Structures are given as C-alpha cells and as structure tokens.
Amino acid sequence: MSVTETLNEGLKRGYKIVVPASDLDAKVNEKLAEAQPEVEMKGFRKGKVPMALLKKQFGQRLMGEAMQEAVDGAMNDHFEQTGDRPAMQPEVKMTNEDWKEGDDVEVEMSYEALPEIPDIDLSDLKLEKMVVKASDEEVQEALQSLAENAQNFEDRKKGSKAKDGDQVVLDFVGRVDGEAFEGGAAEDFPLVLGSGQFIPGFEEQLVGVKAGEEKDVTVTFPEEYGAENLAGKEAVFSCTIKEVKEPKPAEIDDDLAQKYGAENLDALKEQVTERLEAEYNGAARQVMKRGLLDELDGKVSFDLPPSLVDAEAKQIAHQLWHEENPDVEGHDHPEIEVTDDARKLAERRVRLGLLLADIGQKAEVEVTDAEFTQAVMNQARQYPGQERQFFDFVQQNPQMRQQIQAPLFEDKVVDHIAEKADVTEKEVSKEELQKAVDALDDA
C-alpha cells in the first residue's frame, strides 16, 4: 500500500492512496478463512465447504468490506504518522471508476488540517472582575417581594366592592343550555381576581361585586378546551359572593423566614444576600469572559481552516437574517449573502474555539458525567412531562450531546484560564455592572 502527497498548500492536504490487488485478495482470503468453520452449505458438512466455493459465493461482498477497511486503515496510519488532525471529515473518492477484480484500488483523500496552536503564558493575561455587593435596600426589596408572595387576605369593610387582586369567596353553579355540567360547581371557593385561574372573562366580571351579592357570569369555553363537551360552548355561572378580601403582605419577621425554610429573619436575610450576589457574580463572570476572549484574540495568530470559517460565517449570516426577518420560519427563503462582518466574526469564533480547545486539551480539562447529566436535567425542565423522552433523545443523538457538552467544556476552560491569569477585582455598583452586561449584547 502506498500513500503519496499530491497537495500541501497552507492547511490544505491531498493524498493518493493505492491499495494493491494482492493486499485486497489476501484480506478477502483472511475473512473467508475466519468464517469457514461456521459455514454450512448443501452437500458439505459444516466447516468443510471448499475455499474456492466460498470465494465464488461470498468473495464479491467481502471485497467491498476489504476495500473499505484497507482505505480506513491507510487513513488512520497516515494521521498517526503525520500528526495531522482534519478540521472536518476528509473527502475520499475512488479515482479508477472502471475498477474490476484484480486491479489495484486508487483513492484520492483531501482535507484541511487543524493548525498548530501557539502556546500562551496564561499568567501574562490581565483581567478585571467586577464585584457588586448587595445593598441593604436591595435585600429589603427582595424581602418585601417574598412577603407579598406569602400574602394573606383579610376581610374588606362591609359593602366594599371587589378590586383586581382581591380574593372573593363564592359558591357557583355552571350551566350549558340550562343544564348543570360535571365539574362546574363549587362551594366556598377562594378566587383571586386577575390570577387567570378561571377561563377568560370569568374573573373580570366579578370585579365590583360585594359580599352577599348574587351574579350571573356568562363566558364561552375556548375551542381547544380539554373537555370536548364544553369546548366552544357558552356557559352561565350562577355565583353567590360570600366574602370579599383584600391582600395583605405577610410581615417581614421570623415567621416569614420559616415559611421559606430559614431558621429566622437574619438567616433569611443572609440567604437573600447570597442569592443576589450570586446573580451579580454570574453577570460579572460573563463580562470578564468577554474581556478574557478579547485578550486571547489579541495574543494569537494562526492559519484558520477555510471550511470551518465558511460554515461558521454562513451560520452567523443565517441567524442574523432570521433576527431581522422574525416572521419567516424554517428555511424557505432566498440564499443569504455572507457579509464581511459575518466573516470577520466567524474568523474570531473559529480562532478562539480552536485556541480554547487546545488549552483545555493540554490542561486535561474534562466535563464529568455528573456535570453533563446536570446540564441535561436543566434543559429537560423546559419540557414538563416529557423529561424522560428528552433524556432518551439526548442519549441517542450525538450531535445533541455535543451541543450540550461544548459550552460546559468552554466554561471550564475559561475558569482554568482565569485561575492562571492576573485577575483584579473591582467593586462597582449594580448599575455599572448592568451597563457592562448591556454592552455585551451591543458588541
């Protein structure tokens, strides 16, 4: 078997692979010899079928397997010897299309090699990390929100009209065509007006009612309503209003803290402070990450595989076009032109992607099974009731697994770089951090 270089320009590589007919014949005979002891054929005992007959019966099919294995073996040997890593799947095609048994097999292989990535002294990187401390006002505001979510309802003054946000306690009976229907009645039902708990139009008609009042509420069930016998039907609910109550936020005290699982109010304040500062830290990390990528982008230069840049540029242009044309769904649209800006951004992304991958590989950064599983679980929550199907889909779809794993790997590499870099913390206000985050979207 011979491998001859035919192209070596930049990152582009081309090779001619010749597999001698004698090598193919030997591989076919080897496969037949392996199978012979188990072969049964009419007129012969098991394992006693002559090799010539086996070759006549199965040789042509095995020849195809032998060709594929020989070419794959030659490619693997080539990459092992040269150290080349193809940027994308190599293009392989047979050149002697008039091949017949007894001829050598001639194949052309072409690919773009990944470039050599220069080493970087990560300790030379100078980064700034914004730090925001949660103020007393912010903590108090968060506690007030928790108190409102844990609100109670107290009776309004006698004769008061119900307002949006009030709770009305009522008995009701619903009828369609004058007949009561199953599930359409309740007693002492507490309903918060504006909560959207009932079908559209019901709660709005109860705004202004008083305790002791009786009122008929007429609504139409949605066409897609779950119960087919009610879908699209008009219904009249006879309501008796028993109580009208106004919302009262819970007191910010130890009782409130215990409702949220904290031992006392001080412990709840500490939890709220930690949560707020964790949110700020996450935003600050994104700002620092952009600074880190900008620093790296300015420190390295190497050839980029054109195929990777082209694919990334087309994807960016496609995404930008859909953002500008949100009404168009799918891919039924004219061919999208790749702009200079899209290509420039693609070059940056490819360069940084290759660099981060190289740094991560050299540092032996890995995404653990536990980290991957947690990420899948987080995404599965977006599909309530279908979590198991989502898990199965991820397990069976290598591309989906890669889409989930890639950002996890990148974040771990960024953390590794930040640990080695010279990082200065700068305390800023929440507004300054938000301005920096907004600037990321504008860039």
From TrEMBL:
Coiled-coil ranges from the UniProt annotation: 136-163
PANTHER family (UniProt xref): TRIGGER FACTOR CHAPERONE AND PEPTIDYL-PROLYL CIS/TRANS ISOMERASE, TRIGGER FACTOR-LIKE PROTEIN TIG, CHLOROPLASTIC
Keywords: Cell cycle, Cell division, Chaperone, Coiled coil, Cytoplasm, Isomerase, Rotamase
GO CC field: cytoplasm
Keyword Cytoplasm: yes
Protein task: Involved in protein export. Acts as a chaperone by maintaining the newly synthesized protein in an open conformation. Functions as a peptidyl-prolyl cis-trans isomerase.
Record's comment describing the protein's domains: Consists of 3 domains; the N-terminus binds the ribosome, the middle domain has PPIase activity, while the C-terminus has intrinsic chaperone activity on its own.
Catalytic activity field: [protein]-peptidylproline (omega=180) = [protein]-peptidylproline (omega=0)
Enzyme class: isomerase
Listed InterPro entries: PPIase_dom_sf, PPIase_FKBP_dom, Trig_fac, Trigger_fac_C, Trigger_fac_C_sf, Trigger_fac_ribosome-bd_bac, Trigger_fac_ribosome-bd_sf, Trigger_fact/SurA_dom_sf
Family: Belongs to the FKBP-type PPIase family. Tig subfamily.
Protein name (Swiss-Prot/TrEMBL): Trigger factor
BP terms from Gene Ontology: 'de novo' cotranslational protein folding; cell division; protein transport; protein unfolding
Broad class of the protein's primary localization: cytoplasm
Subcellular location, record wording: Cytoplasm
This protein's record includes keyword Isomerase: yes
A Pfam match: FKBP_C
